[in-house]
Amino acid sequence: MTTGHNVHLLPQTDQLRAIHTIIRDRDCTRENFLFYSRRVIRLLLEGGMDLLPFTKKQVTTPVGATFHGLEFASKLCAVPVIRAGEAMESELRDVHPGIRIGKILIQRDRRTKLPHLYYKHLPDDIADRYVLLLEPMLATAGSALAAVDVLLESGVREDRIIMINFLSSPEGLRRVATERPRVKIVTSAIEDRLNEQAFMVPGIGDFGDRFFGTT
Ligand code: PRP
């Protein structure tokens, strides 16, 4: 599929494919699932932070020379969509220890697959911040778009939302691109399609269940 300009697919290296091969296997142990999915999460978070704005900064190196560098130029926060989004929190704290974290709890109705917002708690000044929206699965995109709506209602600018997403469906990406074209998405894989149960194929199953051991 051709990805829109706001879809940032991680480089599809053999190493990434080997990691996906481990974690997509239905017989993968939970220990391996945690270990290898966290490696991908780390890459996704680094990819998301690459999309933030930077300003010029000079420093003097130990040999007395000037290095013409850059520094982060924005206020940032992260908002995991509970529950699966919380799987990304420990890697997030590794790359950005002091980051402000909000929460949005959205669950899909088991039958209709429609998202329902149960809870939100966001930083007071979120409207001034860039937001890493942690949502590992983009299937129908219903949950992700509901989470984006919560952020927009809180005053976040659409072009300041960077969705950190593990697996995405072509349908979900198209829907986000149509309804919220300025939202950026970083993902590690784009699947073939959705099945009748709105699961991605070939997919990874229920990411939250596998990560938190509730299968
Ligand atoms: C899963 C997943 C996403 C959502 C994706 O959540 O974590 O939030 O479904 O599907 P969609 O794009 O069709 O909305 P679920 O409601 O199963 O809860 P979980 O986070 O506890 O796994």
Automatic annotation (TrEMBL):
One Pfam family here: UPRTase
CDD domains recorded: PRTases_typeI
Domain Phosphoribosyltransferase: 11-214
Listed cofactors: Mg(2+)
Biological or metabolic pathway of the protein: Pyrimidine metabolism; UMP biosynthesis via salvage pathway; UMP from uracil: step 1/1
The keyword Transferase appears for this protein: yes
Top-rank EC class of the record's enzyme: transferase
Coiled-coil annotated residue ranges, if any: none
Keywords: Allosteric enzyme, Glycosyltransferase, GTP-binding, Nucleotide-binding, Transferase
Protein's UniProt name: uracil phosphoribosyltransferase
Enzyme Commission number: 2.4.2.9
Family, as annotated: Belongs to the UPRTase family.
The UniProt record lists the keyword GTP-binding: yes
GO molecular function: GTP binding; uracil phosphoribosyltransferase activity
